[in-house]
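Entry:
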Amino acid sequence: MNIRKTVKKIAALVAGTTMVGATIMGAMALDLSDYPAPFVSGGVFDGKIVVGANAATSDVVGAIDLAASLQAEATSVSEINIPGAAGTATVTGDSAEFKTGSDIVRIGEEIGSTANDGVKQTFTANDLEALKSGVFDTGESSKPVKQYLKFGDTNATVEYEQNDDDITADFLKFPDGEDMFEYHLEFTEGAVADIESGGALQDIESEVLTILGAPFTIVDADLDAGNQIDLTLLGGEVADTLRDGETKTYTIKGVDYEVTAVFIASDDQSAKLSVNGMLTKELEEGETDVLGADVTVGVQEILTNQREGIVEFYLGANKLEMTDSDYTNGAYAEESVKVGGERIDNAWLDIKATNSTADDEITLNYIKYKVEADDDIWVPAGKGLKEFLEEPEAMLTGTWDVLYAGLMETGVTTIKIDAVSDHSYDMEFENVNGDMYDFPLLTNKDGTFKYGDDDDDIVFIEPYTATVTGLDNETFISDDDYFVVSDSATSLTSDTVVTSIMRYKSLSSGDNTVTFQDTAGDTVVVSYTGIPGAGATGELIVGGASHDFWVGNESTTASEDYALAVDLDSSGAVDSGEVFLVTRGGAIIDLGTQTFSLGAAKDNLTNPETALEANTVINITTPTDNFDESDDTGTNWIAIQINETSGNEVDLSVTEPGLYEWEDDEDFDLGMTSYGAFVKHYNPSGDEADEVVVEYPLVQRGAQVFVTAGVVEVNEGTMGASGSVETTDVNPIAVGLAVLDTDAPTVGTENMIVVGGPCANIVAKELMGNPENCAEGFEPGKAVIKLWADKNAMLVAGYEAQETLGACYVLADYEDYALSGTELEVVVADLNTITVNPVS
C-alpha cells in the first residue's frame, strides 16, 4: 500500500477553504470530555491528523473515520431572516373573498371590473352555498337553475381618503352612478310554461325559486300586452299553513309571534290573520301587510272547501315584484323592481323569455338584476355595503352582503424626516439588515441650503467618472462628512441591497490608518498604503462589501485635510454612481440630485458648500415587482419636497400621494400609497417646520373584501412574525488535514491527533519520550487515547493495528462513550466488542 497517496486521499475527502489562525490547547485546561475541542472550535477544524509513513492499512482506515467525524462536527449555526407574511382576516360562515390565486385587492384596485382587470368578476355556487343550483319544476318541464353574483362592471375600490363625514381612513368605496353588483338567475335549459287566458302563467305560480339563499314562491305570473312580463314572488322567515281558527307560535330572532287564522273566506279567497293580537287587513293571494314596525305577513295561497279553509302564509314576509316591459329584447329596464311594495331607485331588470305563439307557451331564459350607487358610498373596515345603502332592500334579500374586512396586517418599518429646530432636517430609516440609521439630511442654518448639517455633509453620489490614477487628487469626502455606501449598485428595483451610513472620522498619517464610523454603531479602523495625494489608497469593508478609497493631500483648510474619494456602490471604481437608501421591506429612497464644484487645483471637490435648488424632492419608491401584480401598481411612490424658506429656515410638503386632514388633529394630514405605505404629515398651523413619518409595510398591504351570506364571523388577522430560522452550515476542512509523520509540524506548534503507536509513527514516539522499546506501555488487546495539553497533541494507538482502529472507532463515536480525564484505556476484544476504562 502507498501510504503517502492514501494520506493525500484523506485530505481530499475534506477539501475546502483555509481558515487562518490556530487554537492551541496548551493554553486551556482541557481534557477528553471537551472533545472535539480544541480540534474543532467555533465550528471550524483546527489541527492535523498524523499517520505513520510505515503504518498499517488499518491505521489509515482509522484516520479516515476520524476525519469524517471531525468534518461532521465542523459546522456552525446561522440565522436566516424570514420576512413577515401579511396577516389576513378570516371570515367563517358562507363567504368568499375577492381574490384569485395570489392576486389580492390592492389599494386603489377595482375589486371586479373586467375592463380594468379587477380581482374577481364572478361568484358561483363553487364560492357560496347561497348561490347553489336548484331545480325549477313548472309541470311542463323540470330544469336546473343556476345563480351568479357578478362584479365585472363594478368599479368599487379600497381607498384611503376622506368620506362625506370628514373621516380619514381606509374604505371600500362604491362610486356614484356606477354599478355595485349584478345578480343573474339562469334557467339553464329554459323553464317552459303554458300561456293561459289573460296571459296567466299558472305553470310557474306556486313554484319556488331560491334567490341568494332565500326561498321565494312565485305567487303571480302574467304576460301583458306589448311583450310585458310581471312576476310577483313572496318569501319570508317562516312559511307555514293554518286552518281556520287555528293558532301557532313561531320564534324569529329570539322573538315569539303568536299567529291565528281569524277567518278564511271561500267566496273571494281571502284571509285575515292575527299576529300577537294585531289584525291584518283582509289579504288575498300574493298580498302582504305590515303590522307594527317589524312584522310583515304575506299570504301565498288559500284553499277552501265547503267545510273549512287553509291559508299558506309567510311571517316576516319579503315581497318582490318584477316587471320587464319587453321580455324579448334582452335589455335592462330601469326602476322596474319593487321590494316590500317600494320601487327601488337606480335598479335595473332584464327578464329574457321566448314566446312560442303556435304552442301558446313561453320559455323563461334568465332574470338579471343590477343596482347603481346613487351617491359615493364609503364602507369602513368591518362593515358591509348593505348598512350604508339608503335602500338596503336593493340587495333583494337580507341574506347576503359585501363585507369590507379591512387592510392586511403587515408589520412596518419607519422612515422619518424630523425637523432640527426650523433650519435643518434629519432622516431616520432601517436598512435591509434591521440596522437603524439617523443622519443629518438637509440644512439651511447658515443661509446655504445643502445636504448634511451646517458643519458636515452627506454624500450619496460619486461626482464624476475617473481612472484610478488621480483619484487621490479628486476627493469629495472631507473629515467628519457622512457618506452612503451599498453592497452593490442600487436602482429603483434593487430592494435587497444593503445600504449603510458611514462617517469619515479621522486619518492618522503616522500609522497610515483611517477611522470610519458606521453610524448604526461600529467604528472601523482601516489601513492605507502610499502617500496622501500621491497614490494613497485603502479598502473599507462594510457588510462584506469592498469600497476602495483614495486619500488626498493635506490641505490648507483644516476641514479638508486628507479628504477622500470613495467607491460608494462597491463597483470597483468611482464612476458617477448614485446610492439610493434601501429600507427593510424594500422601499427605495432617492435623496435627490447632488452637484459638486470643482476646485481650480482639483485637490478637492465640494458639493456640500454648493447651494441646492430652492426645492429638493425626495422620492420613496416601491419596486413594481413587489406588488402582487407587477403590471398594476397604481401610485407606488411618495414624493416629499423640501423647501428653502426665508430666515434661513426649511419646510416640506408631501406632493404624492394625496393627503387628507386628520379629523382627530388638524395639524396632521394622512395618506396611503397603493402599496400600503402610510404617510403621516405633521403640518402645524404655526411657523414650525413640517415633518413626515412613513410607516412602510414589510410586504404589500392588501385589502380584504368578501361576499357573505347568512351569519358570518370576522376574525382579524395578525402579522405573521418576521424573524429567523436556524440553519446548519458545514465548514469544509482545508486540504492538508492529514499528514505523514515525516511531514508533521513540530510537536507543540499545532493541534495534532496522532494515529498509531511509536513503532509505526515517529511523532507518537516523540510524545511518549522516545522509548527504546517502541511497544513499551502497550498490552495485547488494548489501546490508549491520551491527551497532552501542554504539547497540543492527542495519541490514538494500540498494541496491534486492530486495537488502534478500535480506539479510532471510540474517538469517532465519542458521544457514545463517557470520555473523561486525559487518558483512557480501550479494550478491543474485536471491533464489535470494545470497552473503555478510565486510567487513574
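The longest strand covers residues 179-194.
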